[in-house]
């Protein structure tokens, strides 16, 4: 029991994390690349990738580090998008207020949904979150302020803090980059805090964590709310980029997409969701003309990821690297 | 003509009947989910897609081969069940030793593939399927379309027969034993892997049968399954997957409640089952018929 607590929980538990110094260096290099990237690549595409990468990272906090599979994260993403769009477009507030409102709403919704969902475990947790998200979808479909099938279109890009002109894509790009880095650092910090370690303990062996005196449900709820709030941050930022909040953002397909991104990139790895989001968003961009085939291809990727590379791309790379470093047999 | 709470009885009983039909589908689908989960420990997300395949099977048999509804009622579930068993043998089987999540994710991916293929071939709008039992009977207080009455009776018979086989026959006792302790049952010389395959085929066939029954009642459409399966998940959470009878009762009951909501407060009809789920989670988290797990 004391040597290997990994039973049937999600993988990547035994994977070693690289040294912090290396990671900081890598992070600085990555940010440097992102600073010059919009001069080579279409900025709106990069912003879309960052929004979904933040979404997937927030989702991964729950799935990868707490072991909770939420199949309803679209409600936080799309819910925050609606609130943010409404605050900016209809109520006439500035973008930063809109984002704050979206995040606050997502956190509140996360608290409500979390209180209900953590009452069941494992597979039921996934079904409960899916059902709650579907309820929220029908609510959005009927509620007058969401604009029904049309959604909220043409959300204005007013100056951020009254100073920064975000109507230009290139300016908005750096704002989105700052938001993304902020969200990522919050998640990184959370994972490596004592709180994050308790979450991992719950993921590995919940009864044992409880027997050690941790109130597992409170930790799970807090992780859920945190994940929902960060998802809301991603959803609100998406509104600034596309100036649109629509039913697509709250539909169950969106919940499935974020699961796919995390799974492909590698759940329980820090960089996995970013890689996964980049791959899936790129694929959707290139294959948009193929219509229904996108759904089929996503399904095939799901099946392939589950059957062939369960650790995800980043997870498999880490496993290979640590295999060669340690020279030991990896499972 | 008398009225109940200001609602004309025609409308009330009409919606009640529609609710019973929906409930019949909820019951058959949640029954299949429960049987599969019991033995395989997999939540079959493909269930909705397989329900849709059943309906499309009936449509294809009629339009491509000229086989009428009554033939399709037998053939279509069989074909879908065989496809399901192939999936179990080739893909699902390799995930049993892993966390339940992977089974859910795999079947979710399969559902996307199936729905995508059908949408690509037949578009998102529905295809009509002729009513095999036109006409109706006047019951005095309401007009009962023959086919709707048939759906309710047929699904009730199928559900009760399933309950009987699982709870009262020797075959069912093997199944229940394997659900509890597959290793021990295997040691007694029963071929558990084959039983798992057949059970999956049976659950899938049940979903396809519901699909065939749904074809004349609704339109045949590629999205009919994904819309339904999420509601069925809520039904399963409400009922708990521990009991066969529980799944049947919860399915029909929730269908009727949904039908009544359509009469008295239509705005809430699409969300009422989810609201009930939330209440059940607060009051009895294990589900009405479930045991804590």
Please, could you describe this protein's structure?
- The complex is a heterodimer of chains A (331) and B (293).
- Chain A is mostly helical and 331 residues long.
- In chain A, 69% of the residues lie in helices and 1% in strands.
- Chain A is built from 13 helices and two strands, in the order αααααβααααβαααα.
- In chain A, helix 2 packs parallel to helix 6, helix 2 packs antiparallel against helix 9 and helix 2 packs across helix 11.
- The N terminus of chain A is likely disordered.
- With 293 residues, chain B is mostly helical.
- Chain B has a single domain, classed as Orthogonal Bundle (ABC transporter involved in vitamin B12 uptake, BtuC), CATH 1.10.3470.
- Chain B is built from eleven helices and two strands; from the N terminus they run H-H-H-H-E-E-H-H-H-H-H-H-H.
- Chain B has a two-stranded antiparallel ribbon.
- The mean pLDDT of chain B is 88.
- Chains A and B meet through helix 5, helix 10 and helix 12 of A and helix 4, helix 9 and helix 11 of B.
Summarize the structure.
The complex is a heterodimer of chains A (331) and B (293). Chain A is mainly α and 331 residues long. Chain A has helices at 20-36, 43-66, 74-89, 95-117, 122-142, 169-191, 194-204, 206-211, 216-242, 252-265, 272-287, 293-307, 312-326; strands at residues 152-153, 244-245.
Radius of gyration of chain A (CA) equals 20 Å
Structural class computed from helices and strand pairing of chain A: mainly alpha
For the record, give the distance between the C-alpha atoms at the N and C termini of chain B, rounded to a whole number.
Answer: 51 Å
CATH topology of chain A: ABC transporter involved in vitamin B12 uptake, BtuC
> Largest chain interface and its two residue counts?
A-B, 44 and 44 residues
Give the total of beta strands of chain A.
Answer: 2
Q: What oligomerization state is this entry in?
A: heterodimer
CATH first level of chain A: Mainly Alpha
Residue runs with pLDDT of under 50 for 5 or more positions of chain B: none
Overall pLDDT metric of chain A: 87
The description of the largest β-sheet of chain A is: 2 strands, antiparallel
- Give the class of chain B from helix and strand content and strand pairing: mainly alpha
* Count of spatially separate domains of chain A: 1
Assign the CATH architecture of chain B: Orthogonal Bundle
According to CATH, the fold-level topology of chain B is ABC transporter involved in vitamin B12 uptake, BtuC
Summarize the main sheet of chain B: 2 strands, antiparallel
CATH class of chain B: Mainly Alpha
Name of the CATH architecture of chain A: Orthogonal Bundle
The proportion of residues in beta strands of chain A is under 5%
